[in-house]
Design goal:
Number of strands: 9
Mean pLDDT: 82
Bound molecules: guanosine-5'-diphosphate, magnesium ion
Number of domains: 1
CATH superfamily: P-loop containing nucleotide triphosphate hydrolases
Strand order of the largest sheet: 2-3-1-4-5-6-9
Structural class: alpha/beta
Distance between the termini: 36 Å
Strand content: 25-35%
CATH topology: Rossmann fold
Oligomer: single chain
Radius of gyration: 17 Å
Low-confidence stretches: 179-211
Order of helices and strands: EHEEHEHHEHEHEHEE
CATH class: Alpha Beta
Helix content: 25-40%
Number of helices: 7
């Protein structure tokens, strides 16, 4: 049985739905009354990729105010991938996406020096009448700024959540090709054994639309 552990960052401005996203993805629940996340929350999602391979995603849900502190560098350390979320009903949160992406890229990279694979998620698509950010704007931002893909989601209506994360997991796995015999999780995560080889960046992009 191969078990692999990946740290995935969930970032974006306050109230875009980061905590709701993690709760929906991990526990399939939704509430209207989450408390503001202070610092960072953790959650674990276990995926059975096939009969003999398990992927554990350690999700780091970082409080929206954290970008203004020096703590983000500590939070970002050793991450394998990132999800940046914004709220389609609030342009300010869309304008902040690049601030988060730049903060991320300036503080962390993969072991081969390439940027972390980063997914852009446009949340609250259920609030169509209040929407102020178009699909075109999202696509342009995603393509021009090195995101691996983007997706329109609704955490409330459970739309495109697991599909988006499955795409991200495939991207993570593509960058972490095992060579030789698999050992323990710790063995697999350490670069000194040479067991993990990071494949070069693919410029793949994927679009999932709200249904
Ligand atoms: P965070 O600060 O980014 O962690 O945001 P929260 O997860 O705390 O969510 C902020 C508010 O947005 C809460 O009241 C949620 O119920 C609400 N919310 C989250 N996702 C959605 C969604 O897809 N649609 C709607 N309508 N509301 C959402
Ligand atoms: Mg939160």
């Amino acid at each position: 049985m191969i078990e692999r552990l990946f740290k995935v960052l969930i970032i974006g401005d306050g109230t875009v739905g980061k905590t709701s996203f993690v709760e929906r993805y991990v526990s399939n629940r939704f509430r209207d009354d989450y408390k503001t996340t202070i610092g960072v929350d953790f959650a674990l999602k276990v995926l059975n990729v096939n009969d003999d391979e398990t992927v554990r995603l350690q999700l780091w849900d970082i409080g929206g105010q954290e970008r203004y502190t020096s703590l983000t560098r500590v939070y970002y350390k050793d991450a394998s991938a990132c999800v940046i979320i914004f709220d389609v009903t609030t342009r300010k949160t869309f304008n902040s996406v690049m601030k988060w992406k730049n903060d991320l890229d300036s503080k962390v990279s993969l072991k081969d020096g390439s940027p972390l694979p980063c997914l852009l998620l446009a949340n609250k698509c259920d609030l169509a009448q209040h929407r102020v950010v178009s699909s075109h704007d999202i696509q342009e931002l995603s393509q021009n700024n090195g995101f691996i893909g983007w997706s329109e989601i609704s955490v409330k209506e459970c739309s495109n959540i697991s599909e988006s994360m499955m795409f991200l997991v495939e991207e993570i796995l593509a960058r972490n090709t095992l060579t030789g015999q698999p050992g323990s999780v710790a063995d697999e995560l350490t670069d000194s054994t040479g067991r993990i080889t990071l494949t070069p960046n693919t410029s793949k992009s994927s679009i999932f639309c709200c249904t």
